[in-house]
Amino acid sequence: MNRLMSLLLAAGYAMGQAVFLFACHPVRLRAAGGGPGLVLHDVRLFGLDLDGFSVQDTGRAQGWVPQLVFLVLCSVLTYAVLRSAPPDARPRLRTVLALLGAGLLAAGVAELVGPALDPRSPLLLPTSGEWVGRAQVAGATALPEQYALWSCWLLMPSWAAAWLLRRWTPVRVLLGTADGAAGGAESPAPAPGSTVRRRDVVCAGLIPMVLLAVAGGAVLRHTNVRQLDQSSSITFAPELWLPYHPPALVDRWSGVLYPALRMRPLATEETAGWLATLVVCLVFLAVLAAALYAVVRWVEGRHPVRLFMNCWYATVLAAVAAALVESGLLQGPWAAPREGAGPMGLVRPFEAALGDAVRFGAVWGWATGACCLGVVWVMTRRGARTRPRVQEEQLSHAE
Question: What residues does 269 pair with on adjacent strands?
Fold first, then answer.
């Protein structure tokens, strides 16, 4: 899509979000006939909090800076995704998913900015327990992520209208197709053997996530552990009675680690609970592998930054897919319940899993993109070195 059309769509999208985020709460207060201290009921759309992320207190930086960060970052990423879209303005699934990933990435960054602005928080990066405590105090969690999930569809009407009116002369001028040229055609067909190269790139992109899963993303605090055998000798080992507590280093980074991304069972964990966690981990890795393969195939031969960012989006979306599976498994008696989530907690299971997943993808998704980009660079350099030798051999055979 050309620069002007992408700029118009991204600007309209950002303007609509800005109006909603900064005007929704005051309008609701005025409609309810109350003052600033009035507590409004939650408004939900398809189970997602509709206005929980809107600006409610402009007197504190924590009340409006995360929203501003989200607007700026989401606008820039949306423009970049639209620029990489095909020139015919037709809404395609891969572009819609990239827009969703860009919005969730911006939401994850905005959520991480909030605690850094809180003067009551001693740490810039809260731990997993501190995130749970903040969610219990607020009565909700993952508000930026929930807003990003439903607000990404605000762009669809204007985008669909541009595609339906693509034969109208003013729209053809905006699309850059008034002269009949397609402009910015699709990337050329992949060369023979590119399937093997794509598979190598995908395997390289999975390395950071597999390392995190094997090395110990076991930060999930739960009480679903084996009970002490009454016939065994009496012992006062704390790991048999207390919930699992991760090591100090893991606990320090637990706020940006996805609890379900682990392949090793805890010492006293029930087998069914570990298998449920392993299913979530395998779903994450499988979805990430499929997404990376599609990304590498789509951006092959294009700018390296597109590959890097799309791999980052793929990591965020794969984590969200795992969160959907995890939120379903948390409802069963076999799962290891999250602290503060579930029927007896103040936080819904999906919201707790969604917040952990998006924070994880926002912080560690760059590693997936860097690995894929590094492997592509190595393959390109190797191909440039071997190409002259092949040409020399062909010329020698021809002589």
Answer: 225
- H-helix or E-strand spanning residue 290: helix 271-298
Distance of CA 278 to the CA centre of its chain: 20
Residue 338: is it exposed, middle or buried by C-beta count within 10 angstroms (0-12/13-18/19+)? buried
Q: What would you report as the CA-atom Rg of the chain, rounded to the nearest whole angstrom?
A: 24
**CA neighbours closer than 13 Å in the CB half-sphere of residue 150:** 17
DSSP string, 148-164: HHHHGGGGHHHHHHHHH
CA 142 vs CA 29, 98, 154: distances in Å: 23, 20, 20
Contact predicate 338/351, CB 8 Å? no
**Where would I find the H helices in 84-127?**
93-117
Phi, psi of 136, rounded to the nearest 5 degrees: -70, -35
Structure tokens at 298: 């789509």
Which residues partner with 225 through β-bridges?
Answer: 269
Give the number of other Cβ atoms within 10 Å of residue 44's Cβ.
13
Strand partners, 44: 49
CB atoms within 10 A of CB 91: 14
Angle at 258 between CA 324 and CA 78, to 5 degrees: 70
User: Is the confidence at residue 326, as pLDDT, over 80?
Assistant: yes
Confidence of residue 384 (pLDDT cuts 50, 70, 90): low
CA distance 160 to 314: 24
Six token digits for residue 49: 């909090």
For residues 142 and 201, what is the distance between their CA atoms, to the nearest angstrom? 32
- Cα 270–Cα 276–Cα 280 angle in degrees, nearest 5: 145
- pLDDT band for 231, please (50, 70, 90 cuts): very low
Q: How far apart are CA 329 and CA 260, in angstroms?
A: 11
Task: Tell me the three state secondary structure of residue 27.
Answer: helix
